[in-house]
Amino acid sequence: MPDVQLYKSILDRESSKPNYERQYCSRYWHYEHWRRFLKHGRVFSALDIPSMSEKTFIKEQEKISDAWEVTALKEMELTVSEERSLAIQRGDVDSEGIPLLTVVVDGSWAKRSYKTNYASLSGVAAIVGLESKKVLLVGVRNKYCVVCARAESKGLKPDEHKCFRNWMGSSSAMEADIIVDGFTKSVEMHGVKYARFIGDGDSNVYKKILDSMPYDNLTVEKIGCKNHLLRNMCNKLKDIARNGKIGHVTLRKLTGSCVLRIRTAVTMAIKYRKEEPSKTENDKIMSLRQDIMNVPFHVFGSHENCEPYFCRDKKDKNYVTVLKTSGLLCRLLDVLNSLSDHARSLIKDVSSNKVEEFNSIVSKFIGGKRINYCLKRSYQARCCAAVVAHNSKTPVYKLHRSMYNCSPGGVNKRSEERKAARRARDSLRKKKLHPKTTFFSS
Hints:
This is Mutator-like transposase domain-containing protein. It comes from Araneus ventricosus (Orbweaver spider). It holds the Pfam family Mutator. The protein has helices at 4-15, 19-28, 34-46, 54-90, 146-153, 174-184, 186-190, 203-212, 226-242, 249-257, 259-275, 281-299, 320-326, 328-340, 343-346, 353-365, 378-392, 395-404, 410-433, and strands spanning 100-109, 122-129, 135-142, 193-199, 221-224. By secondary structure, it is an alpha/beta fold. A five-stranded mixed sheet has the order 3-2-1-4-5, with helices on both faces. The protein is globular. The protein starts with a helix and ends in a 9-residue tail after the last helix.
């Protein structure tokens, strides 16, 4: 991340310039690529309107990139203060009075891998607060610098420039390095400790966090994302249904058609056991394990061990015997047994959706990962813009305030107010369409 004092001095100089240059700068900040700028330049020339030169465009782009990074730092600092206050109110502090936070972590790359090609030139990872649902820390790793690469190809020494290459390892190791760096510096930077984190099934990240030992007398706890655990279960069940060496084709088609029912049964068991009153957490975990292991029997018609809440209609046909004879039931139970081993995480009923939401904003800002923004600093600036958009929901307003210490015009305010109102309506509509199921009245 950039030096805050350096960029504050840059912004102080820029705020003293005439207003027409501010408008000139803000008009072009959203251009996604130099080729698009050239396209607009041709349109302006046809209309006999002067446009920027390439040199001016790059200069203005650098100024706005600086401003995005400074604004992102300010937004993340505000979020850390909010999370710190909430932790102190809950009494979630260690013996030294340092707040203990629960965070959500994940990373993404600048290009799609399609599960085969992990060769992205840049990657980003974020640490999001569970309570505030906002980004606390973001880090970017770049393997490439176009200035250095061109000089190296010609056998020359590169000209003096600001190099953003900061990673020499593999692309797949970027996420773990950023997250470990955030954990080890959390006390120094923000005065907090990340005691628990919610993540996907990537065990490499957790191993590196444990190996780094970021905190004295505190072992970081990992909570598995419910959505990732259930998705992995469904993928394994679909693989069983597609395996022609196991069971009759009719039974495999039946198994494939019941994957969603199995997931739904597990989800409802999690909700019930989580809300169940007058039980300790360990008792809830043991009950959830039993419910998960009973799911295949319930779905395929055997209700002898079903809890009263688990099913009502017990008249469906029983396929358990034929599934057991074919060997399919044993395979299904192996998958469910693997899932039940994560009952301690499942009972928390938490997911990494908020950090996935941030990743989707990054993807939108880099053109759906279809355009290469990894040559210089463009990728890093766009990740910082995504932080501002995710945390504040009013990115242009925040950028303008950061650059010029004044509010933007009424057009921008009305536009962002309409977007906020639309998001509120969509959220309310989704809640009405998908109301939460409650088993116990408060």
